């Protein structure tokens, strides 16, 4: 599914997708309970039905109750969300985004987390050097 289709989700549809990714599988009632300022149950069912129609959500019948799950891989959804965040708030700059994340909560980073960040940066540098040599 192209990334652009994620961008076409309404705010409520995105909220529902967030709930489904967080919970993995849940009923329409559970979705309604997790929504901020939830609309009525029928409206939630209609929104979920639209997500099923758009192929973002799949469902199965468990004892007469429909259980809903995301149909789109979480990593694909994460990439789309990150790209939207980068474009919207950081003018596409990954450096500005990473610096903002580190500035927000840098004091709570553990030594292990800092080492993981350093390994990621080293891996990215290595990949760039390899591409430059080719």
Describe the structure concisely.
With 134 residues, the chain is mostly helical. The protein has helices at 3-7, 11-23, 28-34, 41-53, 74-90, 94-105, 111-133; strands at residues 57-62, 65-70.
Question: What is the overall pLDDT average?
Answer: 89
Helical element count? 7
Tell me what the CATH architecture of the largest domain is: Orthogonal Bundle
Output the CATH topology of the largest domain: Arc Repressor Mutant, subunit A
Q: Strand-and-helix sequence, N→C?
A: HHHHEEHHH
* CATH class placement of the largest domain: Mainly Alpha
Shape verdict? elongated
Low-confidence runs: none
User: How many strands appear in the DSSP assignment?
Assistant: 2
Radius of gyration: 19 Å
Largest beta sheet, briefly?
A: 2 strands, antiparallel
Gap between N and C termini, in Å? 32 Å
List keywords for this structure.
mainly alpha; 2 strands; Arc Repressor Mutant, subunit A; single chain; 134 residues; two-stranded antiparallel sheet
Structure overview:
The protein has 134 residues and is mainly alpha-helical. It has 2 domains: 3-70, Arc Repressor Mutant, subunit A, CATH 1.10.10; 93-134. 67% of the residues lie in helices and 9% in strands. It contains 7 helices and 2 strands; from the N terminus they run ααααββααα. The protein has helices spanning 3-7, 11-23, 28-34, 41-53, 74-90, 94-105, 111-133; strands spanning 57-62, 65-70. It has a two-stranded antiparallel sheet. Strand 1 (57-62) and strand 2 form a beta hairpin. Helix 3 crosses helix 4. The protein starts with a helix and ends with a helix. The relative contact order is 0.10. The model has no long low-confidence stretch (mean pLDDT 89).
């Amino acid at each position: 599914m192209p990334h652009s289709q994620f961008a076409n989700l309404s705010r409520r549809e995105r909220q529902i997708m967030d709930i489904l990714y967080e919970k993995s599988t849940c009923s329409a009632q559970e979705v309604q309970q997790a929504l901020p300022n939830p609309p009525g149950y029928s409206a939630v069912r209609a929104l979920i039905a639209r997500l099923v129609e758009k192929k973002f959500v799949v469902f199965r019948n468990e004892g007469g109750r429909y259980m809903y799950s995301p149909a789109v891989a979480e990593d694909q959804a994460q990439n789309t969300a990150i790209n939207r965040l980068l474009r919207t708030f950081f003018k596409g700059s990954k450096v500005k985004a990473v610096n903002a994340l580190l500035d927000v909560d840098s004091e709570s980073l553990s030594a292990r987390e800092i080492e993981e960040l350093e390994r990621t940066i080293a891996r990215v540098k290595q990949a760039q050097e390899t591409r430059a040599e080719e």
